[in-house]
Amino acid sequence: MIRLPSIARTVIGSGGKLFDPSQLPGLAAWYSADYGVLSQTTNAASFVAANSESLSCPNNSSLQTGTGSWEISLWINPSSLTEATRGIYLAKSENTSGNTQEFILFRPSLGSSVLRFVVGNAAGNSNVTLDASGVLAATTWIFVSFGFNGTHAFLNVNNTQRATIVSSGVYQSTGALTVGGALSWNEYSSSVIGLVGFWKRNLTSDERTFLYNNGTGRLYADLPTDFKTSLVSYWNLIETSGTRNDSHGTNHLTDNNTVGYAAGPYAIPASDGQTVRRWLDRSGNGRHLDQATLVNQPTFSSSGVVFSLKEIILASQTLPQPLSIFAVAKTASTGGGDNFILSQWTASSTSGRWALYFNVTANKDVYVQRATGADNKRITGQQVNVVQAWTCTIADGAGMSSLSLQVAGETGTSLSVGSGGVGATPTLPLRMGTGTSNVAMTVYEVVLCSGYLASAADIAKVKTYFAKRWGIAL
Questions:
Q1: Which of 216, 241, 265 corresponds to the end of one domain?
Q2: Per-residue pLDDT tens for 103-123?
Q3: Cα(308)–Cα(298) distance, rounded to whole angstroms?
Q4: Does some domain include residue 134?
Q5: Could you tell me which of 184, 313, 374, 409 has the fewest CB atoms within 10 Å of its CB?
């Protein structure tokens, strides 16, 4: 990936620290072209419950958890929550008895969003159950780590501990380790699973954060040497068919009933000319932008993301209101139609809540517009093929229903949009790109903050940061 110019050292934030958007109050999302622009994903194993598909390795001493601490990490993407009464993702068990299973990780009932971890005690006469509620959703990846620390069983989801409970040891099952189901139960899941690791120790918080990798995971080749301490096995599960190989040990997984493959959680950093599958949110809030459909993916080029009737999307969720937006972009030429920099708009670009866009007619206007009416704030006469910065605020609330826009130092007064605010359906996807113009637009950096940036000092720092970084006259 091309390296961008370093942030100017004249931009100083709090405590003498070099300023960047991470220091802004209420930072909601931050997309920067030198961070987390990812191309196509690697594969993961895809299971169909109706076909009894699974991957398995017969029991051996290395696969038994033993008497000490241990931990397993994996990525799970349920294809459905209703394909079977239970959906089993990973298991080591002798039979359906709750006491003679070493561990089982599963969805406990039809349609449930609960992820359940059950572990049998050392004596094999009782078990403990840990639930993480509301974490499973169809076609959504989650990172899971679970295990035993010597006194307690624990369950973590997306790098956050969701449950822990005292357990008197762990039963040492002679059953096979099974991914995608439980052979001993003859129950399976419709799911995509990838990047499974098994350690006979507990991971540190920093190690889990490293494996989580802002929601994209790690291949075995990414693991530093110290990660391999007490590592038993690591299965990338990137093969398209047949045996799935253990990248660290010899516990290779046999294919039962023709397990398929699908896009996994891990994505490769984009290089010039490659399409963009995902743009990571640098704020740490997990608002990553995605585009799974290849023909709709924008392109990475010259240290920016290029859109021409393409888009990348943050799946439906409620964004903060009011919302302050800072964007750095350029449009290639005049032509016809609109290039949407950012919007909460429908896929057809005909309705929604609000949009910040560049009109690539001869007037070269930049608008922030309420989608449910003609109310807009516009600044005309913008430059073509020159990197520029835009600032706008979208407000929707009692006494705060307004739009405002600042472009290249020009300031317009806020525009009231009346009691209707900026439209209903606050959970419309956040879209970068789309519009009605096939003129290329390049986006370099976008920052979203909750509320108004009331501090003139903060606003000045953002302007200086953008100006120094991108060579913009503000």
A1: 265
A2: 999 999 999 999 999 998 888
A3: 7
A4: yes
A5: 374
pTM: 0.70
What average pLDDT does the structure give for the chain?
82
* Helix/strand/coil for 208: helix
Q: Which pLDDT score is estimated for 331?
A: 82
- Give residue 437's pLDDT: 73
Structure tokens that stand for 366 in this block: 């930049």
Q: Give the pLDDT of residue 3.
A: 26
Query: What range does the domain containing 245 cover?
Result: 43-265
Higher confidence at residue 465 or residue 98?
465
Q: Which of 338, 370, 366 is nearest to 435 (CA)?
A: 338
Q: Mean pLDDT: which of 15-29, 264-278, 402-416 is highest?
A: 264-278
Asked whether residue 409 falls in the same domain as residue 323, the answer is yes
The reply to whether 19 and 53 lie within a common domain is no
3-state percent breakdown (helix, strand, coil) of the chain, nearest 5: 10, 40, 50
Closest residue by Cα to residue 441 from 343, 363, 334:
334
- Secondary structure letter of residue 9 according to DSSP: T
For residue 286, being part of any structural domain is answered with no
Cα 287 to Cα 305: distance, rounded to the nearest angstrom: 17
Q: Are residues 66 and 209 in the same domain?
A: yes
pLDDT digits (tens, 9 = 90+) for 172-218: 999 999 999 998 888 999 999 999 999 999 999 999 999 998 888 99
CA distance 178 to 186: 11
Alpha-carbon gap, residue 39 to 158, rounded angstroms: 22
355 occurs within a structural domain: yes
Closest CA to 105 of 136, 150, 59, 67: 136
CA distance 265 to 143: 9
* Number of compact structural domains in the chain: 2
CATH number, domain of 181, equals 2.60.120.200
Same domain, 220 and 325: no
Residue 359 DSSP label: E
Q: Tell me the Ramachandran region of residue 257: left when phi exceeds 0, alpha when psi lies from -120 to 50, beta otherwise.
A: left
Q: How far apart are CA 263 and CA 292, in angstroms?
A: 9
- Do 321 and 233 fall into the same domain? no
pLDDT tens digits for 252-284? 999 999 999 998 988 888 989 999 988 989 988
Both 143 and 197 in one domain: the answer is yes
Type of residue numbered 164: T
Do 256 and 315 share a domain, yes or no?
A: no
Considering the domain boundaries, does residue 414 fall inside one? Answer: yes
Specify the 3-state DSSP secondary structure of 80: coil
- Residue pair 368/355 in contact by the 8 Å Cβ criterion: yes
- 248 and 363 both lie in a single domain: no
